[in-house]
Amino acid sequence: MRHGQKPEGGHAWQSEPAPRARRYREQTRGEIKRSAVRRLAEGGVENVALLRIAKEIGLSGPALYRYFGSRDELLAELVTDAYQALAGAVGAVDLGGGVAPRSRRWPTPTARGRSPSRTFTC
């Protein structure tokens, strides 16, 4: 595609990021999340400050906001990640009964970090 030319069926600004840019974005988000988890473990929620995290990983404060819009958004994603890891671990446990009945399965969080209306029942 030539400079200034629109991709087929849309505008240039609507195109997908290049694979390298997407990898960089995911790597940076991972660094931010690892730093936040470390800070959370060391001092609780009060210790998770976006500007400190940005400084720790070599970003400016405003640059970090390109990856997470707020501290609450970052914390919500950490909770979702932890929940998915827990659900995966619980789902992987087979006590000889095969697949757990539907009423005993853990609900999967949605992309926005909220779980669906189903609840875990025993």
The percent of residues in helical segments reads 40-55%
Number of strands: 0
> Can you write the helix and strand succession as a string?
HHHH
Gross morphology: flat
**How many H/I helices?**
4
End-to-end CA span: 57 Å
Gyration radius (Cα, Å) is 19 Å
Mean pLDDT: 78
> What are the low-pLDDT stretches, counting only 5+ consecutive residues below 50?
115-122
Biggest beta sheet attributes = none
Portion in strands: under 5%
Helix and strand content put the structural class at mainly alpha
Descriptive notes:
- By secondary structure, the protein is mostly helical.
- It contains 4 helices and no strands.
- It has helices spanning 19-43, 50-57, 61-64, 71-92.
- The longest helix has 25 residues, at 19-43.
- The protein is flat.
Keywords:
single chain; 122 residues; mainly alpha; 4 helices; flat; disordered C terminus
How would you concisely characterize the structure shown here?
The chain is mostly helical. It has four helices and no strands. The longest helix has 25 residues, at 19-43.
